[in-house]
Design brief:
Layout (H helix, E strand, L loop, with lengths): L13 E5 L28 H13 L4 E5 L9 H8 L7 E6 L4 H11 L3 E5 L5 H8 L4 H12 L7 E7 L8 H10 L3 E6 L17 H9 L4 E3 L8 E6 L5 E5 L12 E4 L4 E3 L8 E2 L1 H5 L4 H13 L25
Parallel strand pairs: 1-2, 1-10, 2-3, 3-4, 4-5, 5-6, 6-9
Antiparallel strand pairs: 7-8, 8-9, 10-11, 11-12
Helix pairs in contact: 1-2, 2-3, 3-5
The protein binds iron/sulfur cluster.
């Protein structure tokens, strides 16, 4: 089968699957304290529907699958989905993005189900400040979860992602440097994006990757490493050999030119860009009995029209109606 490609000549090999819009945290840069209007359970794709779409997309060239949410571990029997996707031919890399709260409980089940690597979202390494951001007093449990998954050496790399927010993250930078320098976790700072449920994002709240890096270099000189194709992170190594640290700068340093990513939402919409303002419904044809040829036609057509880039920094930028908690990392 001819691999998926967009009209800009970019091959599409990376799929992010949101398995639920629900989350057990209430991160300030993501959703209001009261949460969001959740999808009905009947609107969610079943594991069998997700597996069918992933298998078809694998035949169309998708090799990397990342499972996200909301919080994916909050979906009942989530490890069973991992075990259904693992044997799919062509899936080379199967990973999960989680807030880590349920990781201590599920680490072994996820490893036995076959995940290759994991991203854990942690925005502060100070218990009170973690509570302040997530509205949950959960840092000790998240760190136990991180240790639990780290005990399985076959799950690598383990990435720790921190959203960088002005007037907050500046006081976290050196705690995360210490984590990066004292463990084999890959720590990355991610710029705050206009995908929050409160619609409170403004450009001046973005603490850019360059600003965080300058803070770090005042104490730890860094050296840039070559960028991997399709990579979202700019990775640097500590010149004194103390490990690596990364910066994901979608606002200040977009990486759209060689984007190879598409997303599937928990309710079966295909998103061709994180900032898409249009979506393609796959659930309706799926539940109407469409065969793979019909689904392939819909997928190819949608991917062909994939956005060239996001327009966050342009006048007239329109934030997507769907927010981060229902799109996933
Ligand atoms: S903003 Fe859209 S086009 Fe750019 S890297 Fe992200 S998903 Fe790809």
């Amino acid at each position: 089968m001819e691999a998926l490609i967009d009209a800009h000549g970019r091959p599409i090999t990376d799929l992010r699957v949101s398995v639920t819009d629900r989350c057990n945290f209430r991160c300030r840069y993501c959703m209001p304290a009261e949460g969001m209007p959740w999808l009905d359970r009947s609107d969610l794709l079943s594991f069998e529907e997700i597996a069918r779409l992933v298998a078809l997309l694998a035949r169309l060239g998708i090799t990397d699958v990342r499972l996200t949410g909301g919080e994916p571990l909050a979906r009942r029997e989530f490890p069973r989905l991992v075990s259904m996707l693992r044997p799919i031919e062509g899936i080379r890399d199967l990973s999960v993005t989680t807030n880590g709260y349920l990781l201590e409980r599920d680490a072994r089940a996820l490893v036995e189900a076959g995940i290759d690597r994991i991203n854990v979202s942690i925005d502060s390494l100070a218990r009170d400040r973690f509570h302040e951001v997530t509205r949950r007093d959960a840092l000790p449990q998240v760190l136990r979860g991180l240790e639990a998954i780290a005990a399985f050496e076959r799950v690598r790399p383990i990435k720790v992602n921190a959203v960088a927010m002005r007037d907050f993250t500046e006081d976290e930078v050196f705690r995360f440097c210490e984590l990066a320098r004292s463990t084999d976790y890959q720590v990355r700072f991610i710029e705050f994006m206009p995908l929050d449920g409160d619609r409170a994002w403004t450009a001046d709240q973005v603490l850019t990757g360059d600003e965080v890096r300058a803070l770090i270099e005042a104490r730890h000189p860094l050296e840039a490493l070559p960028r991997e194709p399709h990579a979202t992170a700019r990775v640097y190594r500590f010149r004194d050999g103390g490990g690596e640290i990364g910066f994901i700068n979608p606002v200040s340093e977009p990486f759209c030119a060689d984007c190879n990513r598409i997303r599937l939402t928990a309710d079966g919409e295909l998103r061709t860009c994180l900032f898409s303002i249009r979506e393609t419904d796959l659930r309706a044809p799926l539940r109407a009995g469409a065969d793979d040829a019909e689904l392939e036609r819909i997928l190819r057509d949608a991917v062909w029209r994939k956005e060239l880039k996001h327009r966050v920094n342009e006048p007239g930028f329109v934030a997507p109606p769907r927010t981060m908690s229902a799109i996933g990392g």
